[in-house]
Amino acid sequence: MEPASAANRAIWRIRLRWLAAIGFALIPVVFTAAASAVAQITHQSEAGAALTVAIGAGVSALVGLLVMRMSSPALTQYGFRAPRRAAAVWWFVPLPVTIGIVLVSAGVHVGWQTALAYLVLTVAVAFDEEIWFRGIVLAVLRSGGTRVAIVGSSVMFGVLHLANLAGGEDPSSAILQLLFAVVFGVVAAELVVITASLWPVIVWHALWDFTNYVGGNATTGATLAGVGIACAVMIAYAIVLWRRTSPTPA
């Protein structure tokens, strides 16, 4: 599997690309944070809060699609197309493996109604964050080099997960989530570069989040071990994919 050709991928050639990338990266955070604040202020149930945040993420995703449509690259160049060499399914094996590890270690600890609300939430968030981070932000940074864009978009993805501190999350958990989000972002960005498609990472992102939500986001020894093993798989996967990306500017 080799990276898609430059003619088939979205690239923004603009000045102040880092400032633009940061600005775009903040948009999904603002929408989901606002929706989360509404859910807290109105004292919604767990399922209701999930659906409210899903609405915020959905609106953010639509804004992202509008930005894509108004820019020069086509939606297919951003990754809304079938993955290249999809027949080489073994390339995608680590993705369900990470999901399975977490599912086995965490289990399911919510009712079906809450689980359904979380399914809606995770699908909306996956579309939202992949559109912005692996779609737009990656395209903005790509003129400075593919690997620079992969790392830059991933670090932004990780750092902005610290917004969870505003929701009362424990600082140590937030730091761990930051580090994991960076690793997750690197793998997702590498896959988009190599397959020229957003679909595999959208599905992976949604399933990963859903598995964690229905597991109660617990921090028991078993769940932490599961996440640790999944993270090790991702790091190994990232190293393999890294060798198949080009360090030169697109």
What is the H-and-E element order?
HHHHHHHHH
Low-confidence spans: none
Arithmetic mean pLDDT: 87
Radius of gyration: 17 Å
Task: Explain how this protein is built.
By secondary structure, the chain is an all-alpha fold. The chain has 9 helices and no strands. The protein has one domain. Helix 2 (46-70) runs parallel beside helix 5, helix 5 (112-141) crosses helix 6 and helix 7 (171-195) packs parallel to helix 9 (221-242). The chain is globular and about 45 Å long. The model has no long low-confidence stretch (mean pLDDT 87).
Quick tags:
250 residues; mainly alpha; 0% strand; globular
Sequence-ordered SSE layout with sheet pairings:
Layout: H1 17-41, H2 46-70, H3 75-78, H4 94-106, H5 112-141, H6 146-159, H7 171-195, H8 199-214, H9 221-242
Helix pairs in contact: 1-2, 1-5, 2-5, 4-8, 4-9, 5-6, 5-8, 6-7, 7-9
Q: Would you kindly provide a brief summary of this structure?
A:
The chain is built from nine helices and no strands.
